[in-house]
Amino acid sequence: CVPASPYRDMNGALTAIRYARENHVPFLGTCGGFQHALLEYARHHLGWSDAEHAETAPDSARAIITPLSCSLVEAFAPIRLLAGSRIAEAYGALHTQERYRCRYGLRKELEAEVFAGPLKVSGYDDEDEVRAMELQGHPFFVATLFQPERAALQGHTPPLVRAFVQACATAN
């Protein structure tokens, strides 16, 4: 799933994400894809049927995706990757600098509940805000609030995109 939320068909996006998650299909979500992967997981894995995105349901009592404290539009910022994570393996490092064009992220108060199961944080920013996550037990289910694909604008193949393509090539 790609940036540029809200999606024209949120239910279609959530259905595709759920299919990838439940059927072990490689998935890479960036920016809006990260947000919607969280929303899908909350609704279908955690059972929070009333989970919403504040961009499309600003008055929701269960908005799990809310405006960031500081907009990340056109930001370039450091990310601390967790050792042993798929994303750290893809980068071959525990630190990276990445580009954003984002205004929404996970509501901080829900972090412990959301990541208590198989979905795990795999990257934080300098303020310990979640910037990357992955699903344990899945061949490749990774989502980032940052947009690694923007490295292509400078003529670079992003390591995470390379890892995703490799996962797709070896998927059953």
UniProtKB/TrEMBL annotation:
Top class in the EC scheme: ligase
Record carries keyword ATP-binding: yes
Classification via InterPro entries: Class_I_gatase-like, CTP_synthase, GATASE
Catalyzed reactions: UTP + L-glutamine + ATP + H2O = CTP + L-glutamate + ADP + phosphate + 2 H(+)
UniProt entry keywords in alphabetical sequence: ATP-binding, Glutamine amidotransferase, Ligase, Nucleotide-binding, Pyrimidine biosynthesis
Residue span(s) of domain Glutamine amidotransferase: 3-155
Metabolic or biological pathway, per its Swiss-Prot or TrEMBL entry: Pyrimidine metabolism; CTP biosynthesis via de novo pathway; CTP from UDP: step 2/2
GO cellular component: cytosol
Enzyme Commission number(s) of this protein: 6.3.4.2
Single GO MF descriptor: ATP binding
Top-rank taxon: Eukaryota
GO biological process: 'de novo' CTP biosynthetic process; pyrimidine nucleobase biosynthetic process
Assigned protein family: Belongs to the CTP synthase family.
Protein name, per record: CTP synthase (glutamine hydrolyzing)
Organism: Tanacetum cinerariifolium
